[in-house]
Amino acid sequence: MLDHVVAQILALQVRLLACRERLAADTDSEALHDLRIGLRRLRSLLRPLKGLPGVEQLEAAAKALGTLTTPLRDREVLAAELIERGHTIAGQRRQQGRATTFASVAGSPQLARVMAILDAFPLFLRAADREGLAKSLGKRVDKRLVKQWQKLQEALQDPAHDRHRLRLLIKRVRYGDQAYPQLDHAGKKLQGLLKKAQGDLGNWHDRLQWLLQAETQPDLAACKADWEQELHEAERKSDATLDALQAALEQRKPGK
To answer: What is the pLDDT of residue 135?
Structure first.
């Protein structure tokens, strides 16, 4: 398990380095998105490792970089949505200064801190192993992933469940399963349901946020009627997917 974690860390380090260079040179529009995916995978890998040296520091650094980039990515997504709907001027207005924005992320202290800790992290893990701090790591990781699944199942069973919280819990179990595939917590069908639920809830969340912004940004007014209709449709679709997900979870074996 420790070898697996180290290999994942090295792969993510390479990925984030590549994203940093793409951002610095403004080579493509997906650089920021790919950076955030890398961060999400890193945090999913770290979450079950709580208690090992360096984990808390790296998690805090990754969270800070995520906080920095969230509004920038949200603006990108909204700009693309507006351009796709034919509101080109409003969309392009939100894309202005992209190169400067990307360069600021590439040169940010938040990204520099993540990369610095990542560079030393495998050494922390090997040292922890020598000190006996990583004993039964596979069992510890498995136990913590099981708890994440239990939290999701309990939330789905709540009649007054909160879609925001469910979206977060679904992301955690989905990416946790991807970070530790050898523990086999979700088969192909369940992974498919998780992906669909995350997508449906993501569509709902986007429209909710855009409608809130439309209250203070006049150039979004033309999209309000469509977004309101799509919000209701996303609620309907996500509820159906969540019902299917709940049924699939109830059929899982205990502890899996």
So the answer is: 87
How far, in Å, CA of 25 to CA of 95, rounded? Answer: 16
Asked if 122 contacts 10 with a C-beta cutoff of 8 angstroms, the reply is: yes
What Å distances lie between residue 201 and 111, 197, 205, 239, 255, CA to CA?
A: 28, 6, 6, 9, 26
The pLDDT of residue 191: 92
88-95 and 55-84 are packed helices; what angle lies between their axes, rounded to 10 degrees?
Answer: 150
Q: Report pTM.
A: 0.90
Separation in Å, CA 139 to CA 123, 146, 182, 185: 22, 10, 12, 13
User: How far apart are the C-alpha atoms of 192 and 250, rounded to whole Å?
Assistant: 16
Q: List all residues 6 or more positions away from 60 whose beta carbon is below 8 Å from its beta carbon.
A: none
CA dist., res. 208 & res. 164, Å (int) = 11
**SS3 breakdown of the chain: % helix, strand, coil, rounded to 5?**
85, 0, 15
pLDDT less than 50: residues of the chain: 254-256
Pull the structure tokens for residue 200. Answer: 């449906």
Neighbours of 72 (CB within 10 A): 15
**What pLDDT sits at residue 253?**
62
CB under 8 Å to 126, separation ≥6 — which residues?
Answer: 2, 6
CATH code at 1-135: 1.20.120
